[in-house]
From TrEMBL:
CDD domains on file: PCBER_SDR_a
Name this polypeptide is given: NmrA-like domain-containing protein
One Pfam family here: NmrA
Keyword list, A-Z: NADP, Oxidoreductase
Highest taxon above the source species: Eukaryota
NmrA-like domain span: 5-200
Gene Ontology molecular function, alphabetical: oxidoreductase activity
Lineage: Eukaryota, Fungi, Dikarya, Ascomycota, Pezizomycotina
SUPFAM superfamilies: NAD(P)-binding Rossmann-fold domains (SSF51735)
PANTHER family: CIPA-LIKE, PUTATIVE (AFU_ORTHOLOGUE AFUA_1G12460)-RELATED, NMRA-LIKE FAMILY PROTEIN
Length: 284
């Protein structure tokens, strides 16, 4: 049985947060949702505690975190005696130096360094891209009906649904000894860009999709040039960083997609099941 009972979750009203709150609550943990004092979002979660905090005040954070076992806030977590820290890593593998160097990913690497420096017990989860976010924002530009395809589109990579990411968090909490101070790789399913786009077309036969072929090395170089010019956080630049990293840097480094699924309780779906996940999502 897990030694963890109380879990504090920051970012619960964000993109991933609701799925994590749902999974952790349903697994039987006591959940505290941390909200900025200025956050007026309507909370839809039943049976959770709400703690209003000032992210600019360490003392405020410590008061909110006392008695919590897992939370994504480092210095306050150390001060409050939190037992485990799960940083908001997910996605891309910033243990790879060339991935960590990507401008909008650098902060994730610095958080990992800080955890080790402070001696805070941690667990890192690498999930690959979130499938739902990828379909809504990355694989297809829905406004222009275009898709950037890197390195021919036949490289298979792992992706995770939001629900499976929440389940992976639960898997960490249920296995405290096995997951302490380590990184874990979890994946809902594997697919190539071409397979994803084929499923998108099947789910949206009305979509006349234009393909833009990209080379990951050229795309990455162009993204760095744009970043030097002060455009590093523009979405199109971030898209090129993301695409060239997933289908270039991570592949070269041999990311072990889904290696830890069994320990974390994640079942990898079949190619057909993955296809149906894509079709179901884009039909909405």
């Amino acid at each position: 049985m897990s030694s963890f009972k109380n879990v504090a979750i920051a970012g619960a009203t964000g993109y991933l947060g609701p799925a994590v709150v749902k999974a952790v609550k349903e697994a039987g943990f006591n959940v505290t949702v941390l909200l900025r004092e200025s956050n007026s979002s309507k909370i839809e979660f039943d049976g959770v505690k709400i703690a209003k905090i000032d992210y600019g005040s360490i003392d405020s954070l410590v008061d909110a975190l006392n008695g919590q076992d897992a939370v994504a806030l480092v210095e306050a977590a150390v001060k409050a005696g939190v037992k485990r820290f799960l940083p908001s890593e997910y996605g891309l593998d910033v243990s790879i130096p060339s991935v960590r160097a990507v401008p909008y990913l650098r902060a994730k690497g610095l958080i990992q360094d800080l955890l080790k420096e402070l001696g805070m017990a941690y667990t890192i989860l690498y999930t690959g891209p979130f499938l739902e976010w990828g379909l809504d924002n990355f694989f297809v530009d829905w406004k222009t009906a275009t898709a950037n395809v890197w390195n021919g589109g036949d490289i298979s990579v792992g992706m995770s649904t939001l629900a499976d990411t929440g389940r992976a968090v639960v898997g960490v909490l249920l296995n405290p000894k096995e997951t302490e101070n380590k990184a874990f790789y979890t994946t809902t399913g594997m697919a190539t860009q071409n397979e994803i786009l084929s499923a998108v077309q099947e789910g949206r036969p009305d979509l006349k999709l234009s393909i833009i072929h990209q080379d990951s090395k050229s795309s990455l170089a162009a993204a760095y040039e744009a970043a030097k010019a002060g455009r590093g956080m523009e979405f199109e630049v971030a898209r090129h960083f993301l695409g060239s990293t997933i289908f270039g840097l991570e592949i070269e480094a041999g990311v072990p997609y889904g290696r830890d699924n069994d320990l974390l309780g994640i079942k990898m779906v079949t190619p057909e099941e993955f296809k149906q996940l894509v079709i179901s999502h884009v039909k909405k």
